[in-house]
Amino acid sequence: LYMVYDSPDLIHDCMKTWLELADAVIAEHQKHVTLDELYLAEDICYNHGSLCSPDAMKEFLFPYYQQLLTNVKSRQIDRTRKLYVQVDTDGRADPVIPLYAEAIGLDAMSPFEVASGCDVVEIGAKYPELAIFGGIDKRVLAQDLPAINRMVERILPTMHHRGGYIPHCDHSVPEEVSLQNYLHYRKRCVELGG
Hints:
The protein is of the alpha/beta class. It contains nine helices and seven strands; from the N terminus they run ααβββααβαβαβααβα.
């Protein structure tokens, strides 16, 4: 992160290289298929918000993402099909949602890490057009069945009513989550999801 200030030219060079590589690889795929989604595994956030400022994101990330999106859209075989944009970031993601929405037309985000203060119910109410994937606390999945019930009963009915939500763990499922707990959680998702 110091390099953003100490060597901005190097960061731009890295991003130009990323853009060239990502664009070339995607172009090969687009010779055969129309893409439905562009998924950016960003990890731009940590436990209290973004790792860099909105100004740094606007200078070092968004121009390259915008160019990639322009290129991808221009190569779509079926240009009538919408290209959805998803950003995946750990940490406290909600402060960057409006930045990504404005810069690249963010459609979906994941995984909404609960330990960092992400609450999918609150975020879903604030951003009703955003598709939300995640928000299931991995730490609660390692607890007991009543704790799992309380969590999913708070989240799933509201998010089911809202729509645009796929429940899943807010990161990888840790080894301390028993198979019994995980299966119970999945069963409750089906019961509460309709």
